[in-house]
């Protein structure tokens, strides 16, 4: 048996620590299975391949400025506890182009295809009857983002996804199209022909994304992440942060922390702790339900329905009415084609 032990000086972080330990244990399991299969994977190819055994990080690298690694890990843990992943906000037409490129591979035994921009998922396709658990998506993303070896060339590496099968492994083709945009393909087949077929498909995908302007749109959106809320709509409310989680698809959106309010160095840490406390107070509650916690500096509101979970924080002197929260939720829901992946195509063939 294996044991994980973690301690923290800050009170009220039990849920966060549980999530971090869960991520570390799943990541370790994935690495151990990968290590046990390296000889077979490395010797079966007719060309030099890169096999990554770097330990995945519990927190993907962020594009935010002014936040520490610990704060980033805290944010990921809060959202990961819900079993969700973060899509890249993208124009619906451009996302449709990316999704279409992941529908046909010209080879069998392909289980899933993904395009990433840093740790955010741009597009995704799945084989018929194959379920990629959100926790496995997070683990897969962390594995890729935290492995420097995967950035060097085309890579073919085994990976264990516990949500799919914690006693076996799949094979993952990885190639970075540009420094921050990555192509990933999961296969149940491990041989040279499969590698070359996926390599060819990746080359075609790169060409189409470039020629259509989709790759440029992805890179531009990545640079703007995390997105700020429109000042024209919510500036007068002095919103510090908004998080939005979709239970049916297990996707979440997390806005940028407001830059116009002096919230202090550890504001995001304080706000996320309030979110966790609200979540814990709502455990087992009948939907719809809500919670509210106030400190000397901040107020946090959490509103849960079957369709969405809304998280928002404001300075202590701001009041948010039910009407305003409903308007905020409606605005985010109206932005779903831009903020979330609304269609995951089925791989043909």
TrEMBL record:
For region Disordered, the annotated ranges are 51-71
Which stretches does UniProt call biased (Polar residues)?
51-68
Q: Which InterPro entries match?
A: FUZ/MON1/HPS1_longin_2, Mon1
Superkingdom to which the source organism belongs? Eukaryota
A GO biological process of this protein is:
protein targeting to vacuole
Q: Which residues form the FUZ/MON1/HPS1 second Longin domain?
A: 113-204
The name of this protein is: Trafficking protein mon1 subfamily protein
- The scientific name of the source species is Toxoplasma gondii p89
